[in-house]
Amino acid sequence: MNKLKKVFAVLLVAVMFLSTAPTVNAAGTTIDTTKSVDFTIHKYDNTTVGDTTDGTKITDNSLDGYTALENVKFKMYKTNLAQTPNAYAEMPSADTVSKNKSTYGITGAANYTLITDEDGEATQTVPSAMQGIYLVEEVSNPAISNPADLGKPFLVSLPTTTKDGDGWNYDVHAYPKNKVVDGPDIDKEVLDADNGVKKGVNVGDDVTWRITTEISDDLYFKDEDNKESYAKLFQITDTLNKALTYKSITFKTRVNANAGVTLTLTENTDYKVVNTADGENTKMVFTLTQTGMKKVKLAQSGKATHFMVEVTTTVNEHALTVDEVTNDATLNYENNLGVDFEKNTKDDKPTDPTKPGVNTGSTGFTKYVSGTTDKLAGVTFVIADTKANATAGKFIKKDSKGKIYFPGDAGYDAAPVYEVTTTDTGIVKFQGLKYTLNSTTSYWIVETKTPSGYQLLAEPFEVKVGANSNLDKQIGSVSVYNNKKFALPNTGGTGTVVFTVAGIALMGTALLLIKKSKKSKVN
Fold it and tell me: Is residue 496 part of a domain?
């Protein structure tokens, strides 16, 4: 959504103040040279405000709904132009006076400087001794698109004639023109992802989201009077899905499309981060202070064009219930004129989605007794990411917090093997595993323990990890069977008993024959 306010205004005073030359004897009166004159400038974000060329204040509702522009600076220079009918008839243009100031009696600093307030107004009381014709110029402001779009300089007579030309107006109002620069754009991506958009992850993995904004010229600047000026607000709101746990934040700047350069900002001095609950999610609000705005604007010798906020999160077990974890960010920017803009990273084109996200998947099956529909309990399985690792006994591991470890990961050696043992449902689930979005990824299962009387599976077998939403369907359609062992005699078995009894009988017969043989010899 792009809820920006395009800002324009119209100059409705300018030379037209002077288009009707006032007579020295207007309605039988002359200029009262003992009276002061109030001069008020109004700045709004509209294009037409009605007929105000007579210098009077707009009192109807034609300005309702428009945004007043704050902090617009004007300078007033008194000229040597005369307030006489002949002088009005030959009045030069304001642009001519501006380019030839000394010719028209302007040799030093401005007589008055006006800065509009939050209502978009600036008023200067000109004492009676300073009555005359003034050149009014707007001071350059980067929130305004370029010098050509600035409110053009204009001449104003203080006082000026009334609308009907029969008197003098000592309360003069002007509504000069402006065009305000659009607010900065914002974008978001997942680092190390497919074109910055999608990334397969395991539960427990860290994921870094990069939020990139343009650096507006008016974020921080010094005007021609060397006065520092700042944007009123630079705030990024990032609503973290419940499957993401906030971990840390870092910053970079870049020049155009060049690589980012680390920017060191200090929390609570240069920026503030506030994390609050937003239902099941977490709302992270990042705000630059004026100190931070200055550092960002002056980064890379003042050449930086983009500011990057990198938010690192950890994928938690809430990711097991969804197919994809997406994340949007919104920039609230209020320029130094008081005009606010709101932009976010949501894509308004559903046929061409660019919303960044991460995905974690699952796999499962049901264990049966071979040749039956009986589900087998007490069978233990482990899982590996490749057949080679399965054969070598390098299985995936999982700690008490649900974090997944692959061989080679930091912490792998200390973590327990990820194993699942069937209950009387026979169901096996392995969850929180990364896979390729809109596809599946192969993993390998090894059976490590089986109930007495059943044979272990001889080889690892392949399974597919895919979207969590397909898990129940997979469990219902993928079956694994265990065969009973062959009934071979073993220690304590019937065969051994029979053999033992027969052996004892034979031994007894042998002893009896030996005894009889000895008796025969004696006789």
Answer: no
Q: What is the CA radius of gyration of the chain?
A: 42
Cα–Cα nearest to 42, from 24, 20, 62, 18: 62
Q: Are 204 and 404 in contact (CB under 8 A)?
A: yes
CB-based contacts of 512, cutoff 8 Å, min separation 6: none
| Judgement on whether residues 126 and 208 belong to the same structural domain of the protein | no
Task: Give which of 344, 264, 261 is closest to 306, Cα–Cα.
Answer: 261
Question: Which run of H or E residues covers position 287?
Answer: strand 281-288
Q: How many CB atoms lie within 10 A of CB 103?
A: 12
Contact (CB, 8 A) for 287 and 231 = no
- Distance (Å, rounded) from C-alpha 159 to C-alpha 469? 76
- List CB contacts of 244: < 8 A, sequence separation 6 or more: 207, 282, 313, 314, 315, 316, 325, 327
196 and 157, same structural domain? no
Tokens 């132009």 sit on residue: 81
Q: How many CB atoms lie within 10 A of CB 486?
A: 6
Furthest-apart CA atoms within the chain: distance in Å: 181
Considering its fold, how many domains does the chain have in total? Answer: 3
* Strands of the 171-174 sheet, one edge to the other: 121-126, 37-42, 171-174
Reduced to 3 states, what is the DSSP secondary structure of residue 84?
Answer: coil
If asked whether residues 273 and 330 sit together in one domain, one would say yes
pLDDT in tens, 221-257: 998 888 899 999 999 999 899 999 999 999 999 999 9
Same domain (yes/no): 441, 312: no
- pLDDT tens across 273-308, in order? 999 999 999 999 999 999 999 999 999 999 999 999
- One-letter amino acid at 274 equals V
| Residue 465 burial (CB count, 10 A) | 27
- Taking the model in full, what pTM does it have? 0.74
22 in the same domain as 109: yes
Domain that holds residue 380: 360-482
